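Thread: quick sanity check before group meeting

JM: Hey all, I'm pulling together slides for Thursday and realized we never actually wrote out the predicted structure for the chain we discussed last week. Dropping the sequence here so it's in one place. If anyone has concerns about the input, flag it before I start.
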Amino acid sequence: MWTNLKSILFSGWNLNRGLRLIIGIAILFQYFEQKDIFIAMISGTLILQAVFNVGCCGSSNCAVEPRRTKSQTIEDTTFEEIK
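JM (edit): ok, ran it. Output follows.
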């Protein structure tokens, strides 16, 4: 269990994930200045999304899809017409 959690936390970092973390921390500083709970919730959401590598939950797909390599590309299917 811990190895799976460690792989989620420490691998797969990309630009989007880093930006979510940086923006979440910046918004967290705004919370400490203004003491507004709504700002804290936004900050917490962005930080948790970055740490656990999840995106906005739309259409029952919460995990961010890993980047495909050239060996994993989907090949075109050819069809024959049968008469």
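AS: nice. The radius of gyration is 19 Å. DSSP finds three helices and two strands in the chain.
JM: adding both to the slides.
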